[in-house]
Amino acid sequence: MNNSSRRSMVRIVSFILAGFVALGASTIVHSVRARNLELQLEAANERAVGELGEYISNIQTSLQKGLYANTPDMAAKLSMQLRQEAAGAKSSLSQLSLSELELDNLYRFLSQVGEFALSLSRKLDSGQEITAGERETLKTLSAHADKLAAQMEEIRTALESGTLTFTQAVNTLSSKSGTDYIGTAIDDIEQSMADLPTLIYDGPFSDHIMQAQPKMTSGKAEISLSEAAAIASQISGIAADELTNTEDEGGTMPSYGFSHGDMTLSITKNGGYLSYMLSSRYADEATIGYTEAVQKAKEYLNRIGYTNMAESYYSISDGICTINFAYTENDIICYPDLIKVSVALDNGEVTGVDARGYLMNHTQRTAMTPAMTSDAAAASVSDALKIVSVRPALIPTDAKGEKYCYEFKCKGENGEDVLVYINTATGQEDNILILTYSDDGIFAR
């Protein structure tokens, strides 16, 4: 073979190799793109499942409250919540890649809960009463929602644990291999919705406490940095010259910031109040329980000047017990005046205080005289509830105000604890809360 032929052969081989390389590179690029799209779809599906589960859980809570709603205003409020949550759940459901699945029953359930609640709201508003049959329908809907919420939680847990991906679940739907996967769970949901009746035709209060101008600090004289350091020293037990002045806070409640080791403190510039304190230390094995933690927290609050505080709800996480305290005045519990105190259960040390709710809302209130007695207000409590106790309470409103109510603690038909708030002026239900208990605390939803 002459040199010219040899060079031609080299060129041909080079072109062929280049072609294979280009083809391989193209294949790799398309494979990477396909994998990225698959991951994006997987993430979108998992996000939609999480959102759907949250909506279903909210629907379950509102339906349970609906069993005990007894006035038009509360029924209308729950009706609006249910319609919003149902619409959100439908939106999340439509985002799932479930073309192989039939979800007509689930869609029907989401549509009917809102419509049924709306019909009850209109009925109460016109002066009519809810019939025994309609309450039975509410119970049925609530039971379905309870089962659905539990199933959605199982699905979400499976996704988060990584035991199975959403894509794998959908791809293996037809195999029915006997293993647990999302397709089977959703099939179970559909079965549980199949007997849905055809219908003829809704620490508490903490979300609102930070939405107003601070009342405690308004009009108070501004203190100096050294004065704030002295207050922080007195509260923490750390010498003032050992505290480091960190970045100050602005906003509606300007504060001086201090730190030392794992502790951070904030002292308001106006009035010199403790806004919050946080220690990031870890807690070892618990040696005290909730009752002793409450006592430690109360002693601490009294020492730093926050008195007349009553404990309400609490949570326990990583050996730290966080307790909600509300100010009490003349036997009236004032939920807007909220302080959260965290106590380490290994030695009883207070590791955190958040007094911002108290500083935002506490003020010298005028004498509160109810327009009706608690006996008269009790007539607005549903007959489905058994009243256990009653006390006057001040609760915050979405409009950043306050309402004077009677807080009725009741027992539901299934033994659950229910709080009903009846307005002392109008006799209307201002709120309904359902208490849940676990080893991690007492919660209101």
In terms of topology, how is this protein built?
Elements: H1 3-66, H2 72-94, H3 104-125, H4 132-161, H5 166-171, H6 182-194, H7 225-236, E1 244-249, E2 255-260, E3 263-268, E4 274-279, H8 290-303, E5 309-317, E6 320-329, E7 332-344, E8 350-354, H9 356-361, H10 374-377, E9 386-396, E10 402-411, E11 417-423, E12 429-438, E13 441-444
Parallel strand pairs: 7-9
Antiparallel strand pairs: 1-2, 2-3, 3-4, 4-8, 5-6, 5-13, 6-7, 7-8, 9-10, 10-11, 11-12, 12-13
Mind explaining what this structure looks like?
- With about 450 residues, the chain is α+β, with helices and mostly antiparallel strands.
- The chain has helices at about 5-65, 70-95, 105-125, 130-160, 165-170, 180-195, 225-235, 290-305, 355-360, 375, and strands spanning about 245-250, 255-260, 265-270, 275-280, 310-315, 320-330, 330-345, 350-355, 385-395, 400-410, 415-425, 430-440, 440-445.
- Strands 5-6-7-9-10-11-12-13 form an 8-stranded mixed barrel.
- Strand 9 and strand 10 (about 400-410) form a beta hairpin.
- The longest helix is centred in the N-terminal third of the chain and has 64 residues, at about 5-65.
- The chain starts with a helix and ends with a strand.
- The model is unreliable at about 170-185, about 190-200 and about 205-210 (pLDDT under 50).
